[in-house]
Amino acid sequence: MLTALLAAGVLLQGPIEYWSGADMSFLPQYRDLKLDFHREGKTVNPLAVLRESGSNVLRLRVWVNPKDGYCSKDQTLKLAKDAWKAGLRLMIDFHYSDWWADPGHQVKPKAWDGLSVQAIANKVEEHTFDVLNALVNQGTPADLVQVGNEIRTGMIWPEGQLWTKEKGNNPEAFTNLVTFLKAGASAVKRVPPTKDSRDGRTVSPKIIIHNDAGGDYKGTPAWYVRLAQAEVPMDYIGLSYYPWWHGTLTDLEKNLKALVESVKTPIIVVETAYPFSLEWKDKENNFVGKADQLLPGFEATPAGQAKFLRALHATVRKTPGGLGRGVVYWAPEYVAHEGIQTPYENLCLFDFKNEAILDSWKALAGK
To answer: 52, 125, 271, 345: which one is catalytic?
Structure first.
């Protein structure tokens, strides 16, 4: 396998200064449902397609004790092996929850209920190191690690919930959040440097701190300054940028500029997407379904989707000081299928009809 990958020019060599890729954490569910993805009528491996696009990283979310087993440690290890075979590197996204964690939901893992703040921090460090060390032990070490997912409003609620409607800002919760982040970062730093068996490079995981508000050029820089002042370790800033929620590409560009002026830290857009259609297959309440949710000049077509991706990469690359370091697409495989409800079907990089690959895949790495 290794010889074949080398011959095909698939493997990456040396350090990467610019990351491009996708979060494809739903793949195990589609595999269990026996759904195939296609190109010109033939079945394709989405991970191979990701690498063929010129991308270099697969992002995987990790939940603590998910009830259905998906996004668990075991599932992550299995999918990491597949990514490694495809010539991809890994970004691990810790949610510190048994389910989705985002600005509206940061539910503490059930097994951590009743613990003190310090005991929760200990669990954060233990869980983070356990997963990352297991990846090392199976020969698929992570290059990039998100300590929390979209944590603008905090994480591990209620202890780390920065704001509530009833009480407003919570200074104690910020102190707790810093404690949790430092615990996760400590685990990342404890992971031993590891040789990549494919090309011999040394892998030492880097820490990403993730805020969802990619277009908020007033609030987001101040949020990161506060964490920096609290001495939270941070190798990369991670941003989400979905135009219908976060504004224009100009808003993003202003935020990128303000961030590097404020904290001088490399930035990766770790989540993004754009529609190839305003129609739907399984239901009408998709995230995007109206023309006024689109960016001017970027139609909801495969060509418009590709144009958006190229423009987004160009915007990130213009970040002052060369500190714009990548773009990762969220869930290009999250198609409508019996057994999976999705509000995301028209944001995928596969079509409605036969899960056929769209031409916009070619622009995934900004090319």
So the answer is: 271
